[in-house]
Specification:
The complex is a heterodimer. Chain A has seven helices and no strands. Chain A is mainly alpha-helical. The radius of gyration of chain A is 20 Å and the shape is globular. Chain A starts with a helix and ends with a helix. Chain B is mostly helical. Chain B has one domain. Chain B is built from eleven helices and no strands. In chain B, α1 packs across α9 and α2 runs antiparallel to α9. The longest helix of chain B is centred in the middle third of the chain and has 32 residues. The radius of gyration of chain B is 19 Å and the shape is globular. Classes of the chains: A mainly alpha, B mainly alpha. Chains A and B meet through α2, α3 and α5 of A and α4 and α5 of B.
Chain lengths: 172, 299
């Protein structure tokens, strides 16, 4: 499938936005700004999905990230000593190790995406409703076990976290 | 052309919701009030708190307005009269409305003020309570329509409206929509008399005018969502489709704005407890009920 000029422009814009917001995450001292910048980056990735005609993924990305990043913001505020960033706290740590990890994982991602033998390029993306249908069938057949296992694991983690959070006297 | 019609309809809808809000609060039905109140608001000084997070402070009102407008964009007024007919429309409504919460958290954090901060974080807690009660009834609605497209959801109700086919889902969605629009008794983030305006306490002048406009669009959007998903959208006899949608939407908005005035404000922990312990199990029962009726009775 060849991308139309409009799609290419949208891809470039959303790509730049995703990278820009991603950089802003580390350039601010405020936890809330940092979390919201990450939300901006993730929302731009949602825009990328839209530009690539993956409508469902785009909507899902926009929806999930709004909630997740804001909840993350409140947890960062609760756990960090200086959530407002007024004390000019350093946001980057272990620079050499993180640089190495970033470069290595970036190279692995590029390697995997270029060296993998992808299936033949289709002439046109399936219509959004066909994508939804196919995704539903996939979730209810081949991928069912994976998703059910993941769901169960998350449920278990929630119950365990709640139990740990309860005070000793409340447990009785 | 249809874009212009849609824009004018939204503007007219917002104006009428503003009239209804005034009526619900004071009991007086005055058509000129929104103009007078709006002009007065615009003429007031727009103050900035002493040490704000300026970027978030300025962005929050606009984000509230944009999020509400985006959600409205996928909701049809009549056949062919919808800004964007997405195949994932029902999900998109929820995605756009999630940014209402982001806007409120931003508005709460930005002014560096206690009441605003409490209001903002309180709304985030409230989100955990209501968002499942938005998504789960929508799941049941999509099950019946076999589609997430909002136009197909309306046509799926030709034989029987969803309010009758799945009354439990309707009640849960309605209450969750009220919580999302933070109208009484769910007005925890603003809480007049307790938080003194809460999340928007530090907004004045033009900025407050944008906030109020965003809130009115939000109420209109959620009333329209109730109509599209549960009250048969444009379906009805005699009147044209857009006429039915408009009448139903204004009716829902009027009830949303008035009912809560007679009920005391819920406390945050009560809302959370009811949503988690009662609302979510009931939403699951609703999905089960719809599944059974779909398998046993003709759609």
């Amino acid at each position: 499938m060849m991308a139309s000029p409009g799609q290419t422009v949208a891809l470039v814009i959303f790509g730049i936005l995703a990278l820009g917001f991603g950089t802003a995450v580390f350039r601010t001292k405020s936890m809330v700004r940092s979390a919201l910048a990450l939300l901006g980056s993730m929302a731009a990735v949602g825009g990328l999905f839209f530009a690539l005609e993956a409508e469902f993924l785009g909507v899902l990305q926009l929806m999930m990230m709004a909630t997740e990043m804001t909840i993350m913001a409140i947890f960062m505020v609760m756990f960090m000593m200086d959530p407002g960033g007024l004390g000019q706290m350093e946001m980057t740590h272990q620079k050499r190790a993180s640089l190495t990890a970033g470069v290595v994982s970036g190279l692995i991602a590029i390697g995997l995406s270029t060296l993998s033998s992808w299936a033949a390029v289709v002439a046109a993306a399936p219509t959004p409703s066909a994508q939804l249908h196919d995704l539903g069938i996939e979730l209810m057949s081949r991928s069912m076990l994976i998703f059910e296992t993941a769901g169960l694991a998350i449920l278990l983690a929630m119950i365990v976290a709640t139990t740990i959070a309860l005070k000793a006297e409340e447990k009785r | 052309m249809s874009g212009l019609v849609l824009l004018l309809t939204v503007l007219a809808g917002v104006y009428l919701v503003a009239v209804l809000e005034e009526w619900s609060a004071t009991g007086r039905l005055l058509l000129g009030t929104p103009v007078v109140a709006g002009l007065a608001q615009l003429s007031r000084e727009s103050l900035v708190p002493r040490k704000p997070d300026r970027l978030l402070f300025e962005t929050a009102p606009a984000l509230l307005l944009v999020a509400a407008l985006l959600a409205a964009a996928v909701l049809p007024l009549a056949p062919g009269l919808v800004a964007v007919d997405l195949a994932t429309g029902a999900l998109f409504v929820n995605a756009a409305l999630a940014y209402v919460m982001v806007a409120l958290v931003m508005a709460g954090w930005a002014p560096d003020a206690a009441y605003a901060l409490i209001g903002g974080w309180r709304f985030l807690g409230q989100l955990i309570a209501y968002s499942m009660l938005i998504v789960m009834p929508l799941t049941a609605v999509a099950m019946r329509a076999q589609s997430l497209a909002t136009t197909e959801i309306v046509t799926s109700q030709a034989a029987l409206w969803n309010v009758l086919a799945q009354p439990l889902g309707f009640a849960l969605f309605w209450l969750a929509a009220m919580a999302l629009a933070f109208v009484p008794p769910f007005d925890l983030p603003v809480a007049p008399g307790e938080l003194a305006g809460g999340v928007f306490a530090e907004y004045t002048g033009v900025r407050l005018a944008i906030v109020r406009l965003g809130r009115l669009v939000l109420v209109l959007t959620l009333a329209l969502a109730v109509v599209v998903f549960f009250l048969g959208g444009w379906l009805g006899a005699l009147l044209p489709g857009w006429g039915w949608t408009s009448l139903k939407t204004l009716g829902v908005a009027a009830v949303m704005l008035t009912v809560g005035r007679y009920v005391p404000r819920l406390s945050p922990d009560t809302l959370l407890a009811w949503a988690w312990k009662l609302g979510i199990p009931l939403a699951l029962v609703n999905i089960l009920w719809v599944g059974i009726t779909l398998l046993t009775v003709q759609r």
